[in-house]
Amino acid sequence: MSTDCNVTIEILISGLNSEASIAAIKSHMGSDSENVFFLSQSSTSESTFRFVDPVIVAALVSAVGSALASLITGLFVLAKERGSKRIVITTNTEDGKETRYEVPADDASLEKIEKLIEVIRNSERARITMISKPWRK
């Protein structure tokens, strides 16, 4: 985990501009959104989405406290509202190890959220992608 107890999370959302994406995320976080630094970035990586370049929002959030839990919970709510089928979380640790987790967007159980928070807390960086395409077979 980062020595300053912060983790950077890149959030990829299609169909919204950066201001709308940040506003939507904040609206689902409540007062905890004041404890997260949001920054919009341009999409320079290969697009996960076929026809629309995603907006990339970077969130710098403390790995301790309730802001990370509010962010993850808010993203599940937003994903479900936007019709996403699944959420993909890719984490990177300081030693370069990359791990990928895929969860159904409608599975916002407390157990699932706590597991994802633990995974993100133990990473240096994380990328969260909301995917509307069906599951790969």
Large-scale geometry: globular
Helix content range: 25-40%
Mean pLDDT: 80
Order of helices and strands: EHEEHEEHE
End-to-end Cα distance, whole Å, is 33 Å
Largest sheet: 6 strands, mixed
Query: Which stretches are poorly predicted, pLDDT < 50 over at least 5 residues?
Result: 44-52
> Would you count the extended β strands for me?
6
Would you write up a description of this structure?
With 137 residues, the chain is of the alpha+beta class. The chain has 3 helices and 6 strands. The protein has a 6-stranded mixed sheet, covered by helices on one side. β4 and β5 form a beta hairpin. α1 crosses α2 and α2 crosses α3. The chain starts with 5 loop residues before the first strand and ends in a 6-residue tail after the last strand.
Summary tags:
137 residues; alpha+beta; 6-stranded mixed β-sheet; 3 helices; 31% strand; globular
Write the layout of secondary structure elements.
Layout: E1 6-13, H1 18-27, E2 36-41, E3 55-62, H2 67-81, E4 86-92, E5 98-104, H3 110-121, E6 125-131
Parallel strand pairs: 1-6
Antiparallel strand pairs: 1-3, 2-3, 4-5, 4-6
Give a summary of the structure in a few sentences.
The chain is of the alpha+beta class and 137 residues long. The chain has helices spanning 18-27, 67-81, 110-121; strands spanning 6-13, 36-41, 55-62, 86-92, 98-104, 125-131.
